[in-house]
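Hey,
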Amino acid sequence: MRKLFLWVPIALIFAALGVPVVAQAQDFSEAEVVVTGSRRDTDGFDESRPVVGLRRAADFAILEVTIAGDTRDAEKRRSEILAMVKSAIEIAPKFAVQLATGDEVVEALTIANYRDLSLLNDSRPDTDRTTFLVKVKLGDGVDGAAARDRIGRFVKAVPAVGRAEIRGGSDDLTLSIVGPDRFRSEILDILAADAKAVAGRMGPEYGVELKGLDRPVEWARAGLTDVFLYIPYNMVVRPKD
């Protein structure tokens, strides 16, 4: 992968904003992604996380729920589970929650696609289950506690169908962020300011070299409802030639 070497003065660092980025298999400029410890499957990914980056509130708080059934007849059992999913989709707006699927990229669960959900054995004979995500938009007075409470009330309100039942919503919150790549320029501005500050402390006889600024944006959780967006760069301070 191409490396970009930047030296103070700061004008050269800002030039990095125009550097073309190596294309990735997944476009994260608009996609909603689940935030775990750190995430993005790229060649040469560096698991170390720099100190300097952008900390901001996540867009959504998420909990996973399961709908399971144990009706003896397999066709009826699966029909009951899917009917309960359909009911969950229909009442979701009343509780200001959204339903979705996905482990990495979050996609809406709707009346148009809910029948595509996978049905798996629920670890007992004659049982099936399916899982999906319930998410709440954060901000405007909605914090993690409020999101959890809202999801809990929604789960209790989903009407049972036959022997199908809903469970879950009590695990730790997961977070998601929409379009992490959109923050690339803001992250570079932060790195530029930090590099300028470091160069100023070292004196005019030293230069600051930043490697890896053409790498993609990564993300990690940084609190109950905060995420940390960063570029896995390296900084080297050494005497100028």
